[in-house]
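Give me the fold.
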Amino acid sequence: MPLLDIQQLQVRFNTPEGSVEAVRGVDLQIEPDATLAVVGESGAGKSQLFHAVMGLLPRNASVSGQARFAGTELLHQPAAVLNQYRGKRMAMIFQDPMSALNPCSPSGGN
């Protein structure tokens, strides 16, 4: 069973000009003990994808699809449930890693 299983994840933002699709139909599986780097052009939706998984999107966002962590569905969970995972079992390194990571510490210690 994958540790993280994302199926047909879609993120849209409602704006005064209309709906904007930021992430379209992403499928992704990460096995336990695997390492993954998601890379791409600026504005491709990388951050929005993982903001959706971690429940960190703004109120004007809508999410569809599935995202399971260790078998537990994460999308649309209340903050109290997501807080059991955030920072403890899963984390996100934001776009400026030099301010988020200590280069003298192993990756598990950051």
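The longest strand covers residues 18-30.
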